Amino acid sequence: MYACAKFVSAPALVRRSSRVLCQPLSASVLSSPEARTEQARPGAHRAIQTSAAHWDIDTAAKFIGAGAATVGVAGSGAGIGTVFGSLIIGYARNPSLKQQLFSYAILGFALSEAMGLFCLMVAFLILFAM
């Protein structure tokens, strides 16, 4: 009984404002001095620290975005295959147009490869520049 009376009538508890007295006794007396000073200031607001969760969400979003941007590389490969497949079919049908068909095929290859490289560049920008 003596211990309870001594605990309740602690001088620190008596000096507290009415706002702090409305809190549970364990939160009022057992809190650290830094927390007591933050509670005593009416204008002090503590922000929720979510840096670890925020970093995880950002990293996951980067990986998802980079994966979605990399899908264009598969389209580039399909485009190159289509270009050279059409070159073979066109050469088989008319061998006299070999030089003109080959120049068109190289142009198609270059444009298709450029699109694949642009997709890869966007994926790397998402991963490392943001």
Descriptive overview:
The structure is a single chain. By secondary structure, the protein is mainly α. Helix content is 78%, strand content 0%.
At a glance:
By secondary structure, the protein is mainly α. 78% of the residues lie in helices and 0% in strands.
- Cα-based radius of gyration, to the nearest Å: 35 Å
Number of helices: 7
Class by SSE composition: mainly alpha
Query: What gross morphology would you assign?
Result: rod-shaped
The low-confidence parts are: none
Give the overall pLDDT as a whole number: 77
Helix content: over 70%
The rounded distance between the terminal residues' Cα atoms is 63 Å
Which series of helices and strands comes N to C? HHHHHHH
Report on the biggest sheet.
none
Extended strand count: 0
Multimeric organization: single chain
In terms of DSSP E residues, the strand content is: under 5%
Layout of helices and strands, plus pairs?
Blueprint: H1 2-8, H2 11-14, H3 18-21, H4 25-29, H5 33-40, H6 51-93, H7 98-128
Helix pairs in contact: 6-7
Considering the chains and any ligands shown, give keywords for the structure.
7 helices; 0% strand; single chain; rod-shaped; 130 residues; mainly alpha
